[in-house]
Design brief:
CATH architecture of the largest domain: 3-Layer(aba) Sandwich
CATH class of the largest domain: Alpha Beta
CATH superfamily of the largest domain: Glycogen Phosphorylase B
Radius of gyration: 23 Å
CATH topology of the largest domain: Rossmann fold
Number of helices: 15
Bound molecules: adenosine-5'-diphosphate-glucose
Strand content: 15-25%
């Protein structure tokens, strides 16, 4: 009988009925297998216990581990978001090297592994999410866990050269090789991951494309993530949400929705909208940019800096272009209810996704799903978002080229209906093909076909260093 599913992710839903595409897909997969979902407790400091706190139980169990304030600072804000995040998003200039960051990151992963090891059966499948837990499989293997362990990286895989920024660059490949399956967002990410292994003398390529690394074999594949397409489209059609959106946002509306993050290219997006306003004819219809961008990680200096920069640009552009009854840039700093968001997407004639680097970008997919296929808006999409790999009929732009983005905004507003329909239909097909339910089932069925390279139950009690053993090759 197949075992249960164990999911590990930094964020974990606390409510009884989780919402949001990724969360729902994971929730559904867990309900089917009666498994366990473990994540960090939303309260930074727990009640003092060092173990797992159960936060929900249904057909599966949700448990959380607590981070002390020091762990939150050094593991989450430190190594995860001031080292790995900028590294993976091409901003090695923002990487902050602090010994305590790395030490705490490893210590938290070791602790989570200890909390989990006894709860994982040999036939279970473990699905680890994202850069907060890169060393987790290595720690679980050290504790004798032989179950299949898969990893999905939601953010871009870093280019080879950038890995040298890490305090111990060789660790990255070793961490990944402790998983049986490494899932990445795009074919480009997969190529970069394989390039890392190819340049490492410890790695060797098997005939079936898997990588043998010391005593382990790991498969590397892309699994582009998506959204709950039909459910989101349904939300956008809801008439009550439409009725609430009659605000005077001008005749032409372009929308942007992002966490306030330097990887999303927001300053250039605002500048491009300013250049579009500069170039438009005096009698052209009024156009507004509605930017929804709640701040995140504000204790990290780079996030405070981007907020200040953006407010300055918005202030300057509004000063130059506002009229008594019209403000061209509306900048909202808080999260918006998903139903309202879906309605706003549908109301907007264009959506600007201008990421300088992005694993996938779900906003691009949500915008397409929310459109009326008979009269759709136009997606303007950065070539550096993972979504651009398959959504080739969006207006693809270089987010460093302000003039090109300004022209794209004008092109989107002037685009004939037939062309809008054709581009939208092609993009919608790409969104459907990567529906989040497809993404989850593809990843899990691929993981189930991986042949675990360590089936040595007698090692379960030992927490010693990894032992070597003959490699079992995956069937080709
Ligand atoms: P994010 O960097 O958070 O995700 P994205 O993929 O765009 O980026 O997802 C953002 C989600 O949050 C969307 O569903 C969006 O609707 C929602 N959201 C953003 N701002 C909001 C607001 N103000 N109010 C309400 N909802 C808001 C990371 C990676 C991405 C990858 C995803 C999933 O950085 O590249 O696509 O994980 O793997």
């Amino acid at each position: 009988m197949p075992g249960k599913l164990v999911v590990v992710s930094n964020r974990i839903p606390t409510g009884a009925a989780p919402s949001g595409g990724l969360v729902v897909a994971v929730h559904d997969a867990l309900r089917g297998s009666g498994g366990l979902w473990v994540g960090a407790h939303p309260d930074p400091a727990g009640p003092g216990d060092d173990g797992l706190t159960e936060i929900a139980r249904d057909s599966y169990t949700r448990c959380a581990f607590h981070l002390t304030e020091e762990e939150y600072d050094n593991y989450y804000l430190g190594f995860a978001n001031s080292v790995l995040w900028p590294l993976c998003h091409g901003r090695t200039d923002l990487v902050e090297i602090e010994r305590r960051y790395e030490e705490t990151y490893l210590a938290v992963n070791r602790r989570v592994a200890r909390l989990l090891a006894d709860r994982i059966g040999d036939d279970d499948q473990v699905w680890v999410h994202d850069y907060h837990f890169l060393p987790l499989a290595q720690e679980l293997r050290r504790l004798g866990v032989v179950a299949r362990i898969g990893f999905f990286l939601h953010i871009p895989f870093p280019p080879l050269g950038a890995l040298s920024t890490l305090p111990t660059p060789d660790d990255f490949a070793a961490w990944l090789s402790a998983f049986d399956l490494v899932g990445l967002q795009t074919r480009g990410d997969t190529a970069r991951c394989l390039e890392m292994f190819r340049s490492d003398p410890r790695a060797e390529f098997m005939r079936d494309g898997t990588v043998k690394f010391r005593d382990r074999v790991v498969a590397v594949r892309s699994f582009p993530i998506g959204i709950e397409t039909d459910a989101f489209a349904e939300l956008a059609r809801a008439p009550e949400e439409q009725a609430a959106l009659g605000a005077d946002m001008g005749e032409k509306l372009v929308i942007g929705v992002d966490r306030l993050d330097y990887s999303k290219g927001l300053p250039n997006r605002f500048r491009a909208f300013g250049a579009f306003l500069d170039d438009r004819a005096p009698d052209a219809p009024r156009a507004s940019l509605l930017q929804i961008a709640p701040p995140t990680r504000e204790r990290v200096a780079a996030y405070r800096a981007i907020r200040t920069e953006l407010e300055e640009i918005a202030g300057r552009l509004n000063g130059a272009h506002s009229e008594l009854d019209w403000t061209p840039i509306r900048y909202i700093h808080h999260a918006v209810d998903r139903a309202v968001l879906a309605g706003l997407y549908r109301r907007a004639g264009a959506c600007l996704v201008t990421s300088l680097a992005d694993g996938m970008n779900l906003v691009a997919k949500e915008y397409v799903a929310a459109q009326d296929p008979e009269d759709p808006g136009v997606l303007i999409l950065s070539r550096f978002a993972g979504a651009a790999e398959d959504m080739t009929e969006a207006l693809l732009v270089n987010p460093y080229d302000i003039g090109e983005m300004a022209t794209a905004i004008a092109t989107a507003f002037d685009m004939p209906l037939e062309e809008r329909r054709a581009r939208h239909a092609a993009c919608l097909e790409a969104v459907r093909e990567t529906d989040v339910s497809v993404w989850a089932s593809n990843f899990l069925s691929c993981l189930s076909t991986c042949v675990p390279t360590m089936r040595m139950p007698e090692r379960r009690a030992s927490a010693g260093p990894e032992m070597t053993r003959p490699v079992e090759k995956e069937p080709s």
